[in-house]
Amino acid sequence: MTYEFGEECSELAKVAHQTRNYGDAISLYDWALTMRRERYGPIHEKCAATLHNLGRTFLDMWEPGAAENALTEAAAIYEQVKGKQSVRFAESLALLALAYTHLKFLDEAEKAFRDSISVFCGKSYNHAKQSWLPDDAATAVTIEEPQKHPLASAAHAIADCAQLFLMQNQEHRAIAFLEEALEIRRYLYARYNKYRPIIAQTLNKLCELKRAINDATGGGDVHWRMS
């Protein structure tokens, strides 16, 4: 086996994941991880990236225990090589928080979401405007790959955190977070037809929740995300 074989496995694993061939994706990511560990050693951002992708795949397979293991290791590596204020660390931590949510480790999930979203706040939040959007929203036209923008990862974390709040019977906080995720996704994706389903899914979740509790505002206590 060669390093090039491992890199090919990594690319093919992404395709398998996208087409929901999860068994193939896991096997291919395992091969890629083995090759990357042999070439770079276990504490390297390429290994963390593979572990992160393994965690995402396990979450899509509804195997949160396996996801927790992969994402714990990914976050630890990113913390060591990139630092606790890095976007990559925050992305893995947010997925780890989602795994905790599925496992019903609610205290751990809230802490991980808080720490993750705090990083995104430090990188992207417009404190003067009290919004995730920049002063000039027209700058969206300059974003060529919106799915790779740090705000896209922030929106994922915020929307996933809403799931935690629902499990805690905090519907107003869930609504507030979904509204913020929707605002970000409209900013990033409104010009791209292939991403508009993401906007539609977020809006649908928000409408269903508001209908369920017969409330149109949801101004819950969400101050910790700015801390």
From TrEMBL:
Keywords (A to Z) from UniProt: Repeat, TPR repeat
Keyword Membrane in record: no
Gene3D superfamilies: Tetratricopeptide repeat domain (1.25.40.10)
Top-level taxonomic group: Eukaryota
PANTHER family: NEPHROCYSTIN-3, TETRATRICOPEPTIDE REPEAT PROTEIN (AFU_ORTHOLOGUE AFUA_6G03870)
Record protein name field: TPR-repeat-containing protein
Protein species of origin: Trypanosoma rangeli
Lineage: Eukaryota, Discoba, Euglenozoa, Kinetoplastea, Metakinetoplastina
